[in-house]
Amino acid sequence: MGTTPTNGYKDRKPDTIPVRLHHAAYVCRDLEQTRKFYEDLLGWPMVAAWRECDKVFGEDELYYCHLFFQIADGGALAFFHFANPQQHEKFAHYGPHSPFVHLALKVADAEGQQQMQRKLEKAGFETMVIDHGYCVSLYVTDPNGLNLEFTVDHPDAEKITSKRSASAREDLRKWLAGDRSTNNEWRVQAKV
């Protein structure tokens, strides 16, 4: 959505707003299949493959590999794979996925988003595009069942964010009181 103009110290108190996403981590089914999807297909550089053994989460020996794929702001999408199949099953959470549980990442422009869609479809991945009004989103599910959303912001994204930010508490109050009317005039315009 928008940007928050603070990071650092404000009024001599530590600012608790993160500077950026460091990484989001998931458990993958297959390291090489995951690498091919993110590095070969999407073009995200694999910047680390940590081989580790820890004594954590009730496990005496937890051997794993942890892959990191970098995104443009320096953050990363990371994936674990565990050597012991029983431990892998314990820590992996595959299963029915809701399309509302997803990782959304902003891409630079519509041309890049469309190119990504063509590449994904050519590789056999089903995609879906939704114009939300404030952004256009490309959805795909990776080989591990992780739902991904790649968004391109509306040209007036700053203005839209400012307007929604100014009324956020009131919008929430109305929803909690039972008001189900939409406040997304940009989506209505997109459908016309």
Task: Provide a short characterization of the protein structure.
The protein has 192 residues and is of the alpha+beta class. Helix content is 30%, strand content 30%.
Rounded to the nearest angstrom, the radius of gyration is 20 Å
**In DSSP terms, counting alpha (H) and pi (I) runs of 4 or more, how many helices?**
5
Major sheet: arrangement of strands: 3-6-5-4
Helix and strand content put the structural class at alpha+beta
Query: Which residue ranges are poorly predicted, with pLDDT under 50 across at least 5 consecutive positions?
Result: none
Proper CATH architecture of the largest domain: 2-Layer Sandwich
Order of helices and strands: EEEHEEEHEHEEEHH
Write down the overall mean pLDDT: 83
> Please, how many domains?
2
Strand content: 25-35%
CATH class of the largest domain: Alpha Beta
Largest sheet: 4 strands, mixed
Amino-to-carboxy terminus distance: 23 Å
User: What's the helical proportion of residues?
Assistant: 25-40%
The overall strand count is: 10
In the CATH hierarchy, the third-tier topology of the largest domain is known as Signal recognition particle alu RNA binding heterodimer, srp9/1
3D shape: globular
Describe the fold and architecture.
This protein is α+β, with helices and mostly antiparallel strands. It has 2 domains: 1-94, 2,3-Dihydroxybiphenyl 1,2-Dioxygenase, domain 1 (Roll); 97-192, Signal recognition particle alu RNA binding heterodimer, srp9/1 (2-Layer Sandwich), CATH 3.30.720.110. It is 30% helix and 30% strand. It has 5 helices and 10 strands. It has helices spanning 31-41, 85-91, 110-122, 157-176, 185-191, and strands spanning 9-10, 13-14, 23-27, 46-54, 62-70, 76-82, 103-106, 127-131, 135-141, 147-153. A 4-stranded mixed sheet has the order 3-6-5-4. The radius of gyration is 20 Å and the shape is globular. The model has no long low-confidence stretch (mean pLDDT 83).
